[in-house]
Design goal:
The chain is mainly alpha-helical. Strands 1-2 form a two-stranded antiparallel sheet. Helices cover 73% and strands 4% of the residues. The protein is elongated, with a radius of gyration of 22 Å. The protein has helices spanning 2-17, 29-36, 40-52, 71-74, 76-82, 90-109, 114-127, 133-149, 154-177, 181-197, 201-222; strands spanning 56-59, 63-66. Keywords: DNA-binding, Transcription, Transcription regulation. Residues 1-69 form the HTH gntR-type domain.
């Protein structure tokens, strides 16, 4: 494993230094192994590992390429790992969302377009005043994803997208068991949207914090 780790570090060094750039094709295996002072087996294992985390793209019959290194692509690996969370760590995921999502919402208040605001409004209008819990949670995910995308920070967007999965079940359970959860969620969505329309970053941040904290508070009381 130590030899494979060394091979990974050497390929990583080539990418970080700019010797290999996004979209570049790696030299032939025999040439690269010789240049890096590696065995072909250790190089092969390193390439396999880096392809799993979307650093490299192995194309059968064509060669191995550096991927686009786009944040969303790279953070897919994190999303995969997050899916293995235990139920007792859901509060920790919510705590991270409570740190990041209000900041992204505040950023969006200064960047979101009128067209995007109209799309969010239409989304809420279509949902109606008494949606099913499943429809509400699906809308909640899309609503917040749309806002975070408007923050203009692709890394933040990808991080939050990956973190939203573990909290989905908690939100559904809350909607089924807490009497005013649906009405409260709709009200908070409207408040966030109103703050965004007013271009009030601090109000948007505050309402996003309240929105996530309410789920977190409910979950703490049920555990």
């Amino acid at each position: 494993m130590a030899v494979t780790d060394e091979a990974i570090e050497k390929i990583k060094g080539m990418i970080v230094s700019g010797a290999l750039r996004p979209g570049d094709r790696l030299p032939k295996e025999s040439e690269l192994a010789a240049d890096l002072g590696l065995s072909r087996n250790s190089l092969r294992e390193a390439v396999r590992a880096l392809s799993l985390i979307r650093i490299l793209d192995v194309r059968q019959g064509d060669g191995t390429y550096v991927t686009s290194l786009d944040p969303q692509l790279l953070l897919e690996a994190m999303s995969f790992v997050v899916d293995f969370h235990r139920d007792d760590t859901v509060l920790e995921f919510l705590a991270v969302r409570r740190i990041l999502e209000p900041a992204a919402t505040a950023m969006a208040a200064l960047r979101i377009s009128e067209q995007q605001l109209d799309a969010l409004t239409s989304q809420l209008d279509k949902l109606g005043d008494a949606p099913s819990v499943e429809d509400l949670v699906a809308c909640d995910l899309e609503f917040h994803r749309g806002i975070v995308q408007s923050s203009g920070n692709s890394v933040l967007c990808s991080l939050l997208d990956g973190l939203s999965g573990p909290t989905t079940r908690a939100r559904i359970w809350r909607g089924l068991t807490q009497e005013d959860a649906v009405v409260r969620t709709l009200r908070e969505h409207r408040a966030i949207l109103a703050a965004l329309r007013d271009r009030d970053a601090e109000a948007a941040r505050s309402w996003a914090t309240v929105h996530i904290a309410s789920v977190e508070q409910w979950l703490r009381s049920t555990l």
